[in-house]
Write a structure and sequence with these properties.
about 425 residues; alpha/beta
Length: about 425
Protein backbone atom coordinates (compact mmCIF):
# COMPACT_ATOMS: atom_id res chain seq x y z
CA UNK A 1 0.00 0.00 0.00
CA UNK A 2 1.12 3.55 -0.70
CA UNK A 3 2.37 5.01 2.64
CA UNK A 4 1.94 8.62 1.49
CA UNK A 5 -1.41 8.71 -0.31
CA UNK A 6 -4.80 7.22 0.51
CA UNK A 7 -5.58 4.90 -2.40
CA UNK A 8 -8.13 2.12 -2.12
CA UNK A 9 -6.71 -1.41 -2.15
CA UNK A 10 -8.86 -2.34 -5.15
CA UNK A 11 -7.30 0.46 -7.17
CA UNK A 12 -3.81 -0.61 -6.02
CA UNK A 13 -4.54 -4.17 -7.19
CA UNK A 14 -5.67 -2.87 -10.58
CA UNK A 15 -2.40 -0.93 -10.77
CA UNK A 16 -0.38 -4.08 -10.14
CA UNK A 17 -2.17 -5.82 -13.01
CA UNK A 18 -1.55 -2.85 -15.30
CA UNK A 19 2.18 -2.78 -14.53
CA UNK A 20 2.49 -6.45 -15.55
CA UNK A 21 0.75 -5.69 -18.85
CA UNK A 22 3.12 -2.81 -19.58
CA UNK A 23 6.41 -4.69 -19.26
CA UNK A 24 6.93 -5.43 -22.97
CA UNK A 25 6.03 -1.89 -24.04
CA UNK A 26 8.37 -0.42 -21.44
CA UNK A 27 11.23 -2.43 -22.96
CA UNK A 28 10.39 -1.08 -26.43
CA UNK A 29 10.31 2.48 -25.07
CA UNK A 30 13.69 1.99 -23.37
CA UNK A 31 15.21 0.90 -26.68
CA UNK A 32 13.89 3.98 -28.50
CA UNK A 33 15.00 6.24 -25.63
CA UNK A 34 18.55 4.90 -25.70
CA UNK A 35 18.78 5.34 -29.48
CA UNK A 36 17.58 8.93 -29.35
CA UNK A 37 19.76 9.75 -26.34
CA UNK A 38 22.80 8.55 -28.28
CA UNK A 39 21.72 10.66 -31.26
CA UNK A 40 21.53 13.78 -29.10
CA UNK A 41 24.76 12.97 -27.25
CA UNK A 42 26.65 12.55 -30.54
CA UNK A 43 25.40 15.93 -31.79
CA UNK A 44 26.66 17.62 -28.61
CA UNK A 45 30.06 15.97 -29.01
CA UNK A 46 30.34 16.69 -32.73
CA UNK A 47 29.62 20.38 -32.15
CA UNK A 48 32.08 20.65 -29.23
CA UNK A 49 29.60 22.05 -26.73
CA UNK A 50 31.35 23.80 -23.83
CA UNK A 51 30.69 26.29 -21.06
CA UNK A 52 31.22 29.16 -23.50
CA UNK A 53 28.05 28.12 -25.34
CA UNK A 54 26.00 28.90 -22.23
CA UNK A 55 27.13 32.53 -22.02
CA UNK A 56 24.51 35.27 -22.10
CA UNK A 57 24.07 38.01 -24.68
CA UNK A 58 22.07 41.23 -24.57
CA UNK A 59 20.88 43.94 -26.93
CA UNK A 60 21.15 42.86 -30.55
CA UNK A 61 22.78 39.59 -29.59
CA UNK A 62 25.42 39.82 -32.32
CA UNK A 63 27.95 37.00 -32.39
CA UNK A 64 26.17 34.78 -29.88
CA UNK A 65 28.04 31.55 -30.56
CA UNK A 66 25.85 29.61 -28.14
CA UNK A 67 22.74 30.53 -30.12
CA UNK A 68 24.39 29.69 -33.43
CA UNK A 69 25.76 26.36 -32.22
CA UNK A 70 22.43 25.38 -30.67
CA UNK A 71 20.88 25.72 -34.13
CA UNK A 72 23.57 23.40 -35.51
CA UNK A 73 23.03 20.80 -32.80
CA UNK A 74 19.29 20.93 -33.35
CA UNK A 75 19.65 20.53 -37.11
CA UNK A 76 21.89 17.48 -36.67
CA UNK A 77 19.57 15.82 -34.17
CA UNK A 78 16.50 16.35 -36.35
CA UNK A 79 18.15 15.45 -39.66
CA UNK A 80 17.73 18.96 -41.07
CA UNK A 81 19.94 21.38 -43.02
CA UNK A 82 19.29 24.22 -40.59
CA UNK A 83 17.30 25.14 -37.51
CA UNK A 84 15.92 28.15 -35.68
CA UNK A 85 15.70 27.56 -31.91
CA UNK A 86 14.64 30.58 -29.89
CA UNK A 87 13.30 31.29 -26.41
CA UNK A 88 11.17 34.13 -27.81
CA UNK A 89 8.78 31.83 -29.61
CA UNK A 90 5.90 32.26 -27.18
CA UNK A 91 4.21 28.88 -27.77
CA UNK A 92 3.78 26.12 -30.32
CA UNK A 93 1.05 27.99 -32.18
CA UNK A 94 3.28 31.06 -32.50
CA UNK A 95 6.11 28.88 -33.83
CA UNK A 96 3.84 27.25 -36.41
CA UNK A 97 2.50 30.67 -37.42
CA UNK A 98 6.02 32.04 -37.96
CA UNK A 99 6.83 29.03 -40.15
CA UNK A 100 3.62 29.36 -42.19
CA UNK A 101 3.90 33.11 -42.68
CA UNK A 102 7.62 32.73 -43.31
CA UNK A 103 7.27 30.55 -46.39
CA UNK A 104 3.77 31.21 -47.78
CA UNK A 105 2.93 34.21 -49.97
CA UNK A 106 -0.30 35.76 -51.31
CA UNK A 107 -1.84 33.46 -53.89
CA UNK A 108 -0.10 30.35 -52.54
CA UNK A 109 -2.09 27.21 -51.90
CA UNK A 110 -1.88 25.36 -48.57
CA UNK A 111 -3.30 21.83 -48.39
CA UNK A 112 -3.74 20.16 -45.00
CA UNK A 113 -3.85 16.41 -45.59
CA UNK A 114 -4.67 15.27 -42.05
CA UNK A 115 -8.15 16.70 -41.67
CA UNK A 116 -8.95 19.88 -39.77
CA UNK A 117 -5.94 20.91 -37.68
CA UNK A 118 -5.77 21.69 -33.97
CA UNK A 119 -8.14 24.34 -32.62
CA UNK A 120 -5.59 27.05 -31.87
CA UNK A 121 -4.25 27.12 -35.44
CA UNK A 122 -7.69 27.88 -36.93
CA UNK A 123 -7.32 31.62 -36.46
CA UNK A 124 -3.82 31.54 -37.93
CA UNK A 125 -5.09 29.94 -41.13
CA UNK A 126 -8.43 31.72 -41.18
CA UNK A 127 -10.52 28.55 -41.17
CA UNK A 128 -13.42 30.20 -39.32
CA UNK A 129 -13.47 33.22 -41.61
CA UNK A 130 -11.20 35.98 -42.81
CA UNK A 131 -9.74 36.43 -39.31
CA UNK A 132 -7.77 39.69 -39.19
CA UNK A 133 -4.10 38.96 -39.77
CA UNK A 134 -4.69 35.32 -40.79
CA UNK A 135 -3.19 33.59 -43.82
CA UNK A 136 -6.58 33.94 -45.49
CA UNK A 137 -6.53 37.67 -44.80
CA UNK A 138 -3.15 37.81 -46.56
CA UNK A 139 -4.46 35.98 -49.63
CA UNK A 140 -3.21 32.46 -48.93
CA UNK A 141 -5.67 29.81 -50.10
CA UNK A 142 -6.47 26.88 -47.82
CA UNK A 143 -7.97 23.47 -48.39
CA UNK A 144 -7.99 20.23 -46.46
CA UNK A 145 -8.46 16.51 -47.04
CA UNK A 146 -10.54 14.68 -44.43
CA UNK A 147 -9.19 11.51 -42.91
CA UNK A 148 -10.56 8.20 -44.13
CA UNK A 149 -11.33 5.73 -41.37
CA UNK A 150 -9.15 7.90 -39.09
CA UNK A 151 -6.14 7.48 -41.36
CA UNK A 152 -4.69 9.63 -44.18
CA UNK A 153 -6.63 9.21 -47.41
CA UNK A 154 -3.67 8.51 -49.68
CA UNK A 155 -5.73 8.32 -52.86
CA UNK A 156 -7.39 11.67 -52.14
CA UNK A 157 -3.99 13.21 -51.37
CA UNK A 158 -2.59 11.98 -54.66
CA UNK A 159 -5.58 13.40 -56.54
CA UNK A 160 -5.44 16.76 -54.73
CA UNK A 161 -1.73 17.60 -55.02
CA UNK A 162 -0.79 19.28 -58.30
CA UNK A 163 1.58 21.86 -59.72
CA UNK A 164 -0.39 24.65 -58.02
CA UNK A 165 -0.01 23.18 -54.53
CA UNK A 166 2.51 25.28 -52.60
CA UNK A 167 2.47 23.46 -49.28
CA UNK A 168 1.30 20.10 -47.98
CA UNK A 169 0.69 20.47 -44.24
CA UNK A 170 0.74 17.48 -41.90
CA UNK A 171 -0.33 17.48 -38.26
CA UNK A 172 1.47 14.59 -36.62
CA UNK A 173 -0.44 14.53 -33.33
CA UNK A 174 -4.12 13.88 -32.86
CA UNK A 175 -5.00 17.18 -31.17
CA UNK A 176 -8.49 17.01 -29.66
CA UNK A 177 -9.41 14.15 -32.00
CA UNK A 178 -9.66 10.42 -31.46
CA UNK A 179 -7.84 9.55 -34.65
CA UNK A 180 -4.44 7.87 -34.21
CA UNK A 181 -1.39 10.08 -34.38
CA UNK A 182 0.77 9.65 -37.46
CA UNK A 183 3.67 7.24 -37.37
CA UNK A 184 6.83 8.32 -39.16
CA UNK A 185 6.16 5.66 -41.81
CA UNK A 186 2.80 7.27 -42.64
CA UNK A 187 4.40 10.71 -42.84
CA UNK A 188 7.01 9.32 -45.22
CA UNK A 189 4.30 7.83 -47.44
CA UNK A 190 2.47 11.18 -47.64
CA UNK A 191 5.73 12.94 -48.49
CA UNK A 192 6.52 10.50 -51.28
CA UNK A 193 3.04 10.86 -52.78
CA UNK A 194 3.20 14.66 -52.63
CA UNK A 195 6.72 14.89 -54.07
CA UNK A 196 5.87 12.51 -56.90
CA UNK A 197 2.97 14.74 -57.91
CA UNK A 198 4.87 18.02 -57.41
CA UNK A 199 8.63 17.88 -56.71
CA UNK A 200 8.58 21.57 -55.72
CA UNK A 201 5.89 21.28 -53.07
CA UNK A 202 6.89 22.25 -49.52
CA UNK A 203 5.96 19.56 -47.00
CA UNK A 204 5.61 20.97 -43.50
CA UNK A 205 4.98 18.88 -40.39
CA UNK A 206 3.53 20.14 -37.12
CA UNK A 207 5.83 17.99 -34.98
CA UNK A 208 4.35 18.93 -31.59
CA UNK A 209 4.11 16.00 -29.14
CA UNK A 210 5.97 13.70 -31.58
CA UNK A 211 9.66 14.45 -30.98
CA UNK A 212 11.74 11.44 -29.86
CA UNK A 213 8.74 9.10 -29.76
CA UNK A 214 10.22 7.10 -32.64
CA UNK A 215 13.80 6.71 -33.86
CA UNK A 216 13.34 8.99 -36.88
CA UNK A 217 12.05 12.53 -37.26
CA UNK A 218 10.08 13.90 -40.26
CA UNK A 219 13.05 15.68 -41.86
CA UNK A 220 14.86 12.34 -41.98
CA UNK A 221 12.14 10.98 -44.28
CA UNK A 222 11.89 13.99 -46.57
CA UNK A 223 9.92 16.73 -44.79
CA UNK A 224 11.05 20.21 -45.82
CA UNK A 225 10.07 21.96 -42.60
CA UNK A 226 9.07 20.96 -39.08
CA UNK A 227 8.11 23.04 -36.07
CA UNK A 228 7.34 22.49 -32.42
CA UNK A 229 7.26 23.86 -28.89
CA UNK A 230 10.01 23.69 -26.27
CA UNK A 231 7.51 23.28 -23.41
CA UNK A 232 6.48 19.99 -24.99
CA UNK A 233 8.77 17.07 -25.82
CA UNK A 234 11.80 18.87 -27.21
CA UNK A 235 12.44 21.04 -24.15
CA UNK A 236 12.82 18.04 -21.87
CA UNK A 237 10.86 19.70 -19.06
CA UNK A 238 13.75 22.14 -18.52
CA UNK A 239 13.17 24.82 -21.16
CA UNK A 240 10.78 27.38 -19.67
CA UNK A 241 9.60 28.74 -23.01
CA UNK A 242 10.43 28.74 -26.71
CA UNK A 243 10.04 26.84 -29.93
CA UNK A 244 11.99 25.49 -32.86
CA UNK A 245 11.79 25.36 -36.64
CA UNK A 246 14.03 23.00 -38.62
CA UNK A 247 14.38 21.93 -42.23
CA UNK A 248 15.75 23.20 -45.52
CA UNK A 249 18.20 26.05 -45.14
CA UNK A 250 16.36 28.42 -47.49
CA UNK A 251 13.04 27.85 -45.72
CA UNK A 252 14.50 28.27 -42.24
CA UNK A 253 16.09 31.53 -43.36
CA UNK A 254 12.70 32.81 -44.53
CA UNK A 255 11.25 31.89 -41.15
CA UNK A 256 14.07 33.75 -39.41
CA UNK A 257 13.27 36.83 -41.52
CA UNK A 258 9.66 36.54 -40.34
CA UNK A 259 10.64 36.14 -36.68
CA UNK A 260 12.99 39.14 -36.70
CA UNK A 261 13.24 41.16 -39.90
CA UNK A 262 14.39 40.65 -43.51
CA UNK A 263 18.13 41.04 -43.84
CA UNK A 264 18.82 40.34 -40.17
CA UNK A 265 17.16 36.99 -39.59
CA UNK A 266 19.22 34.68 -37.35
CA UNK A 267 22.00 37.23 -36.81
CA UNK A 268 20.11 39.06 -34.07
CA UNK A 269 18.33 38.05 -30.90
CA UNK A 270 19.76 38.25 -27.41
CA UNK A 271 19.62 34.96 -25.53
CA UNK A 272 19.49 36.64 -22.09
CA UNK A 273 21.04 33.66 -20.32
CA UNK A 274 18.55 31.12 -21.69
CA UNK A 275 21.06 29.04 -23.67
CA UNK A 276 22.00 26.72 -20.82
CA UNK A 277 18.46 25.47 -20.23
CA UNK A 278 17.76 25.12 -23.96
CA UNK A 279 20.83 22.90 -24.31
CA UNK A 280 19.98 20.97 -21.15
CA UNK A 281 16.37 20.60 -22.25
CA UNK A 282 17.39 19.03 -25.54
CA UNK A 283 19.87 16.76 -23.76
CA UNK A 284 17.21 15.52 -21.33
CA UNK A 285 14.42 15.34 -23.93
CA UNK A 286 14.80 11.70 -25.08
CA UNK A 287 14.72 10.42 -21.49
CA UNK A 288 11.84 12.70 -20.48
CA UNK A 289 9.82 11.63 -23.53
CA UNK A 290 10.48 8.01 -22.59
CA UNK A 291 9.07 8.66 -19.11
CA UNK A 292 6.03 10.38 -20.63
CA UNK A 293 5.46 7.41 -22.94
CA UNK A 294 5.64 4.95 -20.05
CA UNK A 295 3.13 7.10 -18.18
CA UNK A 296 0.75 7.04 -21.15
CA UNK A 297 1.08 3.27 -21.61
CA UNK A 298 0.38 2.67 -17.92
CA UNK A 299 -2.66 4.97 -17.86
CA UNK A 300 -4.00 3.19 -20.92
CA UNK A 301 -3.59 -0.25 -19.32
CA UNK A 302 -5.01 0.85 -15.96
CA UNK A 303 -8.14 2.55 -17.25
CA UNK A 304 -8.87 -0.06 -19.91
CA UNK A 305 -8.78 -2.53 -17.03
CA UNK A 306 -11.46 -0.44 -15.29
CA UNK A 307 -13.60 -0.64 -18.44
CA UNK A 308 -12.99 2.70 -20.15
CA UNK A 309 -12.25 3.27 -23.82
CA UNK A 310 -8.62 4.23 -24.37
CA UNK A 311 -6.68 5.21 -27.46
CA UNK A 312 -4.03 4.13 -28.09
CA UNK A 313 -4.30 0.77 -26.35
CA UNK A 314 -1.43 0.02 -23.98
CA UNK A 315 0.17 -2.41 -26.46
CA UNK A 316 -0.22 -0.29 -29.62
CA UNK A 317 2.65 1.49 -31.36
CA UNK A 318 2.75 5.19 -30.48
CA UNK A 319 3.55 8.24 -32.55
CA UNK A 320 3.17 10.92 -29.87
CA UNK A 321 2.92 11.22 -26.08
CA UNK A 322 -0.84 11.84 -26.02
CA UNK A 323 -3.23 9.37 -24.38
CA UNK A 324 -6.98 9.69 -24.92
CA UNK A 325 -9.35 8.39 -22.26
CA UNK A 326 -13.11 8.14 -22.71
CA UNK A 327 -14.74 9.06 -19.40
CA UNK A 328 -18.33 9.02 -20.72
CA UNK A 329 -19.78 12.03 -18.88
CA UNK A 330 -18.87 15.49 -17.61
CA UNK A 331 -18.83 14.48 -13.95
CA UNK A 332 -16.27 11.72 -14.46
CA UNK A 333 -14.20 13.91 -16.77
CA UNK A 334 -13.95 16.74 -14.24
CA UNK A 335 -13.31 14.34 -11.33
CA UNK A 336 -10.47 12.68 -13.26
CA UNK A 337 -8.79 16.02 -13.98
CA UNK A 338 -9.23 17.10 -10.35
CA UNK A 339 -7.57 13.86 -9.22
CA UNK A 340 -4.61 14.43 -11.55
CA UNK A 341 -4.23 17.97 -10.20
CA UNK A 342 -4.32 16.74 -6.59
CA UNK A 343 -1.12 14.75 -7.14
CA UNK A 344 0.81 17.50 -8.88
CA UNK A 345 3.96 18.82 -7.24
CA UNK A 346 2.82 22.35 -8.08
CA UNK A 347 -0.66 23.76 -7.37
CA UNK A 348 -1.97 20.47 -5.97
CA UNK A 349 -4.42 22.44 -3.78
CA UNK A 350 -6.25 23.94 -6.77
CA UNK A 351 -9.49 22.44 -8.06
CA UNK A 352 -9.79 22.51 -11.87
CA UNK A 353 -13.17 23.62 -13.19
CA UNK A 354 -14.38 24.04 -16.81
CA UNK A 355 -13.76 27.53 -18.22
CA UNK A 356 -13.80 29.48 -21.48
CA UNK A 357 -10.20 29.07 -22.64
CA UNK A 358 -8.91 31.36 -25.45
CA UNK A 359 -8.69 29.61 -28.81
CA UNK A 360 -11.31 26.92 -28.09
CA UNK A 361 -14.97 26.77 -29.09
CA UNK A 362 -16.21 25.10 -25.90
CA UNK A 363 -15.35 25.18 -22.22
CA UNK A 364 -12.18 23.33 -21.26
CA UNK A 365 -11.18 21.64 -18.01
CA UNK A 366 -7.45 21.39 -17.46
CA UNK A 367 -5.27 19.75 -14.84
CA UNK A 368 -1.81 21.23 -15.19
CA UNK A 369 0.19 21.46 -12.01
CA UNK A 370 3.51 22.25 -13.64
CA UNK A 371 6.83 23.94 -12.89
CA UNK A 372 6.45 25.69 -16.26
CA UNK A 373 3.03 27.22 -16.89
CA UNK A 374 1.24 25.31 -19.66
CA UNK A 375 4.00 22.74 -20.09
CA UNK A 376 2.70 19.67 -21.92
CA UNK A 377 5.71 17.47 -21.21
CA UNK A 378 4.84 17.67 -17.52
CA UNK A 379 1.81 15.57 -16.68
CA UNK A 380 -1.38 17.32 -17.69
CA UNK A 381 -4.92 16.31 -18.53
CA UNK A 382 -7.34 18.51 -20.38
CA UNK A 383 -10.55 18.19 -22.27
CA UNK A 384 -13.22 20.25 -23.97
CA UNK A 385 -16.53 19.82 -22.20
CA UNK A 386 -18.37 18.22 -25.07
CA UNK A 387 -19.39 14.75 -26.15
CA UNK A 388 -17.99 12.12 -26.14
CA UNK A 389 -16.23 13.43 -22.98
CA UNK A 390 -12.67 12.29 -23.59
CA UNK A 391 -9.67 13.51 -21.64
CA UNK A 392 -6.36 14.05 -23.42
CA UNK A 393 -3.43 13.23 -21.17
CA UNK A 394 0.17 14.01 -21.97
CA UNK A 395 3.54 14.18 -20.32
CA UNK A 396 5.08 13.02 -17.08
CA UNK A 397 8.57 14.21 -16.11
CA UNK A 398 9.06 10.87 -14.42
CA UNK A 399 6.93 7.75 -14.56
CA UNK A 400 6.55 7.21 -10.82
CA UNK A 401 4.98 10.59 -10.07
CA UNK A 402 2.70 10.27 -13.12
CA UNK A 403 1.64 6.82 -11.93
CA UNK A 404 0.66 8.25 -8.54
CA UNK A 405 -1.32 11.06 -10.17
CA UNK A 406 -3.27 8.60 -12.29
CA UNK A 407 -4.08 6.52 -9.20
CA UNK A 408 -5.27 9.62 -7.36
CA UNK A 409 -7.50 10.40 -10.35
CA UNK A 410 -9.05 6.95 -10.04
CA UNK A 411 -9.39 7.49 -6.27
CA UNK A 412 -11.20 10.79 -6.80
CA UNK A 413 -13.65 9.13 -9.20
CA UNK A 414 -14.07 6.22 -6.76
CA UNK A 415 -14.90 8.55 -3.87
CA UNK A 416 -17.62 10.18 -5.97
CA UNK A 417 -19.06 6.80 -6.95
CA UNK A 418 -18.07 7.31 -10.59
CA UNK A 419 -15.27 4.75 -11.15
CA UNK A 420 -16.22 1.78 -13.31
CA UNK A 421 -14.91 -1.74 -12.79
CA UNK A 422 -14.94 -1.55 -8.99
CA UNK A 423 -17.19 -3.57 -6.69
CA UNK A 424 -18.37 -0.89 -4.26
CA UNK A 425 -19.92 -3.56 -2.05
CA UNK A 426 -16.58 -4.82 -0.78
Amino acid sequence: MNPFFKIDERIENASDRAIKLCKEQFEIIDDITEYNQNKVQKAFIDNKISEMNFATSTGYGYGDSGRETLDKVWAQVFGAEDALVRHNFTCGTHTLAVALFGVLRPGDNMLCVTGTPYDTIHNVIGIKGSEMGSLKDFGVNYNEIPLKNERPDYDAIENAVNEKTTMVYIQRSRGYELRPSLRIEEIEKIINIAKNKNPDVIVMVDNCYGEFVQKKEPCEVGADLIAGSLIKNAGGGIARTGGYIAGRHDLVEKCAFRLTTPGLGKEVGATLGMNRELYMGLFYAPHTVGEALKSAVYISALYENFGYDVTPKYNEERADIVQSLGLENEESLVAFCQGIQSGSAVDSFLLPEPWDMPGYDSKVVMAAGAFTLGSSIELSADAPIREPFYAWIQGGLNFHSAKTCSLLAAQKMFEKGLLKGIDYGI
